[in-house]
Specification:
Blueprint: E1 2-15, E2 19-21, E3 24-26, E4 30-32, H1 40-52, H2 58-61, H3 74-87, E5 90-100, H4 110-121, E6 128-133, H5 139-142, E7 146-157
Parallel strand pairs: 5-6
Antiparallel strand pairs: 1-4, 1-7, 2-3, 5-7
Bound molecules: magnesium ion.
Magnesium ion (MG) binds near residues 9, 11, 34, 40 and 43.
């Protein structure tokens, strides 16, 4: 009737890559490196949903050895995961996620990310909470070597 899933992801920050977080393109001198668009937040959300459904992880569903996913828009991959979830008979109850990034300042983009994610998840934006934090300069995120994201979702069965 009720499921909880957790997701975590890290991507390296490099020059000459776009920064896309939660489906939102953000102005930055550094972007995330990856096979797809490397949207670390969307990847954590996908893993949380797949986790709640006990369907493995995104590496299993979208292997980075598959050229179909080269530079993929992670929102399209999320839409596929949402389709799987619907097929399993579940819907999103709520999502809570945190992006760890030293810079740029993400606060001005949070609302756009929430709108974007709630649209693909098919829920009211009041059920989607995105947070951003720095690590006070500590660790790989603090040194702007990477960004990390954590996500928790709860799902409800259609029959609930
Ligand atoms: Mg990833």
């Amino acid at each position: 009737m009720f499921r909880i899933g957790f997701g975590n992801d890290v991507h390296r920050l490099v020059r000459d890559r776009p920064l896309v977080l939660g489906g939102v393109r953000i102005e930055s001198d550094l972007g995330l490196l990856g096979h797809s668009d490397a949207d670390v937040l969307v990847h954590a959300v996908m893993d949380a949903i797949l986790g709640a459904l006990a369907l493995g992880d995104i590496g299993r569903h979208f292997p980075d050895t598959d050229s179909r996913y080269k530079d993929a828009d992670s929102l399209d991959l999320l839409a596929t995961v949402v389709g799987l979830m619907r097929k399993e008979g579940f819907r999103v109850n709520n999502l809570d996620a945190t992006v760890v990034a030293q810079r740029p300042r993400l606060a001005p983009h949070i609302q756009a990310m929430q709108a974007c994610l709630s649209g693909v998840l098919g829920v009211d934006s009041g059920r989607v909470n995105i947070k951003a934090t720095t690590t006070e300069g500590l660790g790989y995120c603090g040194r702007s070597e990477a960004m990390e994201a954590f996500a928790v979702v709860s799902l409800l069965a259609d029959s609930a």
